[in-house]
Amino acid sequence: MTEKETQTVEETVEAVQNEQDMTAETEEAEVIDERSAAEVEMAELNAKILRIQADYDNFRRRSREEREAAAKYRSQHVVEALLPVVDNFERALLVKPESEEAKSLLKGMEMVYRQFQETLKNEGVEVIETVGQTFDPHFHQAVMQVEEEGFESNQIVEELQKGYKLKDRILRPSMVKVNA
Fold first, then answer.
1. Where would one find coiled-coil regions in this protein (predicted)?
2. DSSP code of 173?
């Protein structure tokens, strides 16, 4: 082989090596790009998983709170339906009996009324305090405004109908007269 041929072969080998080096660098760059794209996709998927997990945790918390509220106020509808019965009991107990038979009947009604009140109390039902208290529109409904001596302005003078609350929820506000 001549010197010229040797030189041509060397140039060809060098060109092939350069081409192989460039191909390797290109492949390496592509692998790095694919790896970066995979890392970005993995980060997006991790963020999505965290959001879904947070949503699920919020759902579980809301469900638990709704169950607790339902259990806490489960007797609300029954108690609301019984409030007129309590009012009628109280009106009946205001009657002054004259005969011994009527007195005996009234005594029995008082016993049933106390038992009824105790049952309501055990369910979390409370009477809203009124007379002498300062008027609060969250607990009281003012149906009259009067000028009375011995009472401050905006103080409740008389209760016209009892109000009740179940735990921390108002079932019925008290109807009251308020001092002007």
1. 28-62
2. P
> Per the confidence metrics, is the pTM higher than 0.85?
no
Phi-psi group of 99: left, alpha or beta (phi > 0 → left; psi -120 to 50 → alpha; rest → beta): beta
Distance of CA 68 to the CA centre of its chain: 9
Residues 6+ apart with CB under 8 A from 113: 89, 90, 93
Tell me the CATH number of domain 76-179, given options 3.40.640.10, 2.60.40.10, 2.30.22.10, 2.40.50.140: 2.30.22.10
Report the amino acid identity of residue 75.
S
Instruction: Give the residue carrying structure tokens 């009234």.
Output: 106
What pLDDT digit, counting tens, does each position of 4-26 carry? 667 676 777 777 776 776 776 77
